[in-house]
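User: Continuing from earlier, I have the next pair ready.

Assistant: Great, send them over.

User: Here they are, in order.

Assistant: Folding the first of the pair now:
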Amino acid sequence: MNDERLTVAHTPDGTDGPRPAGYRPEPPGPPDQSDRPEQPEQPRRRKRRGPGPFTLLLLPGLLTVTGVAAFLALGGLPDPWPDDSDSNTSAGADIDPSYVPWLRKAASACTVLEPSVLAAQIDQLSGWVDDSDELSGQKGIAAFTDSEWRTWGKDDDGNGKSSPRDPADAIMALGRRDCSLAKKVTELRTEGRVSGDLVELTLAAYAAGPDAVTEVGRVPAGAKTYLDEVQALLPRYEALDREDSGGGAGGPAGALLTAPVSPLTITSPFGSREHPLTGVTKLHTGVDFAAPQGAQVVAARRGRVVFAALTSAYGNRIVIDHGTIQGKRVETTYSHLSLLGVAVGQTVEAGTPIGRVGSTGLSTGPHLHFEVILDGYYTDPRPWLAT
């Protein structure tokens, strides 16, 4: 589109400047008015007794549009689906579900600790990244040095190796270390030598050492930065402190499981062992619980039965799919049963009877072989089970 435009320029004496194309001059007026500038005809004004159509119809709309635009510019309506990626956990924070039972188990070693405190510590120490600091020699998600690991490290998950790079071992070692510090500061506070919150004193002792806490009788200045950083992360992990019995589907990651038999008497733990019948040393993929022949076996969590049949090694075996929790599939298995009480496709609740203890398959006597499979990998069932 041709958008050429000319602007009319008026000279001081009233003569014309450039004119647009097609311009036609007005005919001259009477001779006696030739020296007077031509006055445009003034339109007759109509007197209005009230608001006109513009005011009644258009102006309110314009005001509304303007108000909405200003409101949105200031933030507008709250998002009905807020981005909670930086909010808390577990629901909140994106923790590998396999870590959660170990956090709970480690914290249960003393009354001062909560799982959220351990989780916040690990977040501050490593951001949950299993890496090494070449300068300090710290390794794994709990940032242990070799000398520290010799004091606190154990093979807690029974896989045949004690390592700060093993998340389960690292979490349990951090719990032991913190509980030891908590015991010391509790004694100091009981003796009146220090004052303050026990959790804060424990974290301060971790950062600066028990002697520094004892010297000033409270949280020392050198530990305040660490303490503030850990406390700022705590809200992300508060959900870890609220235990779930495992009765609901799709519950928070790491929800504890209901005991499949009662009482829970372990005869063979998870980990490497020599099979009592075959003599082959390999990973024992679950936990063996002692139980009499015919004892009731129940589902450990709500889910759907995906396998229920006789196998050569496991005997009568049931597999229950409990769904996806934070992107990881959780399944439990029940083997060597004398009786299958459910069928494939059936939905069960936590505590629903599913079978009876037996000694079918490769078994030396009546017991329940119980497994927890996390995203296709066997994991130690013990920290998942409610005691």
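And the other member of the pair:
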Amino acid sequence: MMKTNEESLLFTRVNKDTQALPISIEDWEKKAREVLPDGPFDYVAGGSGAEETLVENRTAFSRWAIIPRMMRDVTNRTLGISLYNQALRTPIFLAPVGMQTISHPDGELASAKAAAAAGVPFVASTVSAHSLEQIAEVMGDAYRWFQLYWSNDREVSASMVRRAEKSGYSAIVLTVDTVMLGWKRRDFRNGYSPLREGRGLANYLTDPVFCSRLPEVTPENAVEEVLKNIYHPALNWNDIAFLREHTRLPILVKGILHPDDARLALEHGVDGIIVSNHGGRQMDGAISTLDALPAIAEVVAGKIPVLLDSGVRTGADVMKAMALGANAILIGRPFLYGLAVAGEQGVASVLDTLIHEFDVAMALSGSNSVADLDRSILARL
């Protein structure tokens, strides 16, 4: 429960160890720009094409205003939610982001430890720089999901899913919007590809099925095999049934933007939807996730959880997404900027700020719990 005496924390939590760290996401981004070379920074910060979708993901939030309610006694607040029978401290997740060692040498291990300490679920990427087993080890019993990039070699996908289940992951997130690589001008300009550098090989080099496909297990051979398998234009709804054969875990699909695809997800027994345009990194000119959310939430009608990523930067953003139908949200770039600047401590600080912002926004809106967040507290501008 959030208590009013936590107001004092807002003024005292900046101590000698953290006073040099930024507060706003904008300042974290500026600091990250200072410490990262062009290639890694642009890979993290950039989007596809002219980056219209990247911008629109943020702009969409400014088209909604919160209408606060007064005199509702918000002394005792809770930010908690329940997903798949798991009680969570907040509706905030760390999104699956691959190859995090381009931001900091500790990569996913630092992010995962910060998430575990904050009680925030961590979603590990298939193309992480540390294996899913290594990430699980540093997280202990903390709640985590595994994001799967479908492989054209289905048995590799099955093997990854089985490993995730064995390692204590609680759900599988199938990313469906990467049938091919987005057209990223910044990366072309910099001549930068962390995947080709071998940054995202950890889960592949530790996978027995994948390694059995190589004439010799070397990073060079692995990179070429990954590039042959990771982009999957043939992926279709019937593949969900194959995935079901290899795991008992809930299966979410990430990358849904059209309400008709939400209907198909329900028809094929998917357990959750993540409304996402890959942070504006895939199809430029695509609808923003916040604009796509209400129609998808209407189709789903509470039958399965609906989560949202892409564009969330503040506690008010979290509120707006929840009020428009999201059960939870995911952040990506914000925690990567924190990681780049200060490793595990940076990720922890970003999460701490966002959680406290969300709590303040809840209180000032007259809301005691996420159940109070609905369309009635919003006005379309």
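Worth noting for the second one:
Residues 9 and 323 are 27 Å apart (CA to CA). Residues 1-5, 7-16 have pLDDT under 50 and may be disordered.
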